[in-house]
Amino acid sequence: QVLKDIDTSAILENTSNKNYIKFYNYCDNNFNNITEEEKEYFYSRGFIEEDLKYFKNFVGIEHQKDSADYNIIFKCTDYSFIRRLVTPLKLFGKDKEMRYQNSQNLNTTLGHYCYLLDTFTETRLLDTKGIFYITEGVFDALTIKVALKNNCLVFSSGGANSNHEKIAELINKEAEIFNMKYKKKLTAVIFFDNDSAGENGATELVKLIDQKYTRVSTNLSKLVYQNSKDLNEELQKNREKLIKNLNIVNNNLIYAYK
């Protein structure tokens, strides 16, 4: 049963953690009852209907009161989220559009804009043989989830270098514990955008990761999506080839772990 659309701006106006959780529940319910029109947006990103099952509990839909517009919600923490504006906003006086919007961060210690970073846990690392993927964009992270059928650990940096220290701090902490307990290094694969900003961002992140406990690969992007800007663009252009290549990469990493 679809919930009656509510004025989400009223929920978020009183910016409390309780209200954010209420907002997330509302958006999750909307995704669970996704309309055909809303599915079309995901199809335009290279996904098919079967893929949507991998997004449940990870993606929400925000309806606009008294409007047919809707937004895609990516929960980062109980205190922060990323909003993808399906209908971009024209920026006044600029020849640009706003496509992504970060929420207010209600807790500067616990809140951040790294999508799916909360899934980076010892339990999940054991499930994936210590292998994990880091992307820039949220849809790139979803692309990996689809290609590997959720049998993976992936998170997005949110495309902001300012998040790198938080990411590296968590990786270094978990990697040291993993190494002490299981005598194994973690394996990080960085799939940032194929442009100078992406390359520079990957280089800066690698500098922060303690490679005593984590192997880091940054060169696989040239092999997996050499003719595309990012993973999601490659999914739209060469879906089957990309899925095959990502599975080859993942299987080879698992084999090397043994």
Keywords:
disordered N terminus, 18% strand, alpha/beta, 4-stranded parallel β-sheet, 8 strands, globular, 4-stranded antiparallel β-sheet, 258 residues
Quaternary form: single chain
- The helix-strand sequence is HHHEEEEHEHEHEHEHHH
Strand content: 15-25%
Q: Return the average pLDDT rounded to an integer.
A: 91
Describe this protein's structure.
- The chain has helices at residues 8-13, 17-32, 36-44, 122-127, 138-147, 164-182, 196-208, 221-224, 231-237, 239-257, and strands spanning 60-63, 70-77, 80-90, 97-102, 131-135, 154-156, 186-191, 214-217.
- The protein is α/β, with parallel strands linked by helices and 258 residues long.
- The strands form two sheets. It has a four-stranded antiparallel beta sheet. Strands 6-5-7-8 form a four-stranded parallel beta sheet, with helices on both faces.
- A hairpin with a 2-residue loop joins β2 (70-77) and β3.
- α6 (164-182) crosses α7 (196-208) and α9 crosses α10 (239-257).
In short:
By secondary structure, the chain is α/β, with parallel strands linked by helices. The protein contains ten helices and eight strands. The strands form two sheets. It has a four-stranded antiparallel β-sheet with strand order 1-2-3-4. A four-stranded parallel β-sheet has the order 6-5-7-8, with helices on both faces.
List the helices and strands and how they pair.
Layout: H1 8-13, H2 17-32, H3 36-44, E1 60-63, E2 70-77, E3 80-90, E4 97-102, H4 122-127, E5 131-135, H5 138-147, E6 154-156, H6 164-182, E7 186-191, H7 196-208, E8 214-217, H8 221-224, H9 231-237, H10 239-257
Parallel strand pairs: 5-6, 5-7, 7-8
Antiparallel strand pairs: 1-2, 2-3, 3-4
Helix pairs in contact: 5-9, 6-7, 9-10
